[in-house]
Amino acid sequence: MQSLQIVYFAWLRERIGLPRETWETKAETPAELVAELAAREDRYALAFADLSAVRVALDQELAEFDASLAGVREVAFFPPMTGG
Amino acid sequence: MQSLQIVYFAWLRERIGLPRETWETKAETPAELVAELAAREDRYALAFADLSAVRVALDQELAEFDASLAGVREVAFFPPMTGG
Amino acid sequence: MGDLQIRVQEAAFDPGALLSDFDQLAARSGAGAVVTFTGLVRDLPGGGLHAMEIEHYPGMTEKALTAIAEEAAGRWDLGPVLILHRYGLMRPEEPIMMVATASAHRAAAFAAADFLMDYLKSRAPFWKKETTEAGDSWVAAKAEDEAALDRWRQG
Amino acid sequence: MGDLQIRVQEAAFDPGALLSDFDQLAARSGAGAVVTFTGLVRDLPGGGLHAMEIEHYPGMTEKALTAIAEEAAGRWDLGPVLILHRYGLMRPEEPIMMVATASAHRAAAFAAADFLMDYLKSRAPFWKKETTEAGDSWVAAKAEDEAALDRWRQG
């Protein structure tokens, strides 16, 4: 088991209803983590319904959904960025 | 015969030694005018020795050396521009 | 490599004051060309924008902007580089962000500023939300912004 | 078409003060993107530049700059456009000139500023002379500046 800080931004934060949580997981990739979270409650399932609209960062670096979570402490989920 | 104001800038002005003069001419194009001026004195011949380094404007609009001088009042000769 | 200035702040800022300071730094670095981009809060096409709120990811934001500035400094021969981006609440017509680049010649200064903006748009963790009488809505990312990154992937 | 501001002056100017005013005009015109270019007097590669003197063609200069600004405003959907260019004597590190463009989106603001600079370089009647201890010399035009105009001739 691995203890992760999970952080959410923008409409993902709003749909899930919290900005940050600690989560114990055996997930090896962000994709597995998403499946685990989506199975918890409807609000997670809803937030992750369309993964093409979700981006992930591992320890504050953009990553792919099939990247490894080994050694990672913070996972962030958020929509495509709209700065500038 | 046509009376032209001829103006010179940058190193053309310096080589010819004056910024502006009035000139009576039968030249029909800037190229004919240049030939006429170059025949006057060495300083003109020197200034116009390499026409690839000279630009011409007719009544303050860039023009070609074979453009018509009909109706023109001011002819300017100067090197390629270097603003910015 | 010139001085890289990265600022992420809630406070309003004055692009003119930043440019005055930046031009002095640029001139001292031997630059002859300075390019700036300023992003302003724009009203909606039909009007009615009350405010824009920008959320960001503290920690990652600074890292992402630094990485983008370093990438630009590696691609072009630059003097100082500035990236400033606000978060929080702002009103229509207020400046949101600014980038500034300096180089000996104009082509590099233009290309670097254009590059910084393309990467910042799609790779720095900022999210805009628009507030109107009818409610709040998150600004959607544009496919053209993602596509703009392809311009920098070859050559 | 937005407001076109063309200024040809001997006096020094403050790019920051110009940008502050321009941003306000731009914001009121509905622009979300402002791009500026500032040209600075750059020392020679080995140092030793005492001054730069810029000669221009009064009358034609204003016409040429207006024509270039109008051409840009016809090609892109722009808010205000500013072109300011000094003539006369200036010292190293001083601002020589500035252009500013505004548009709803960044691509048009960048392209228009880049276009203005390319045309201004090769089509506006300014000539630079550098003064050093060894004497004065007229700056030669660069073939690459003329070639840069080809970028805008198609598409």
CATH fold topology of chain A: Ubiquitin-like (UB roll)
Instruction: Specify Rg of chain C, calculated over alpha carbons.
Output: 16 Å
Spatial order of strands in the largest sheet of chain C: 1-4-6-2
Helix-strand string of chain C: EHEEHEEEHEEH
Oligomer: heterotetramer
Low-confidence region ranges of chain A: none
CATH topology label of chain C = Aldehyde Oxidoreductase, domain 3
Succession of helices and strands of chain A:
EHEHHEEE
CATH class of chain A: Alpha Beta
Major β-sheet annotation of chain C:
4 strands, mixed
Molecular shape of chain A: globular
Compile the SSE list and pairings:
The complex is a heterotetramer, with two copies of chain A (84 residues) and two copies of chain C (155 residues).
Chain A: E1 2-8, H1 10-16, E2 20-25, H2 30-38, H3 42-47, E3 55-58, E4 61-63, E5 74-78
Parallel strand pairs in A: 1-5
Antiparallel strand pairs in A: 1-2, 3-4, 3-5
Chain C: E1 4-9, H1 15-28, E2 33-40, E3 49-56, H2 60-75, E4 78-86, E5 88-90, E6 95-103, H3 106-123, E7 126-132, E8 135-138, H4 143-148
Parallel strand pairs in C: 1-4
Antiparallel strand pairs in C: 2-6, 3-5, 3-7, 4-6, 7-8
Helix pairs in contact in C: 2-3
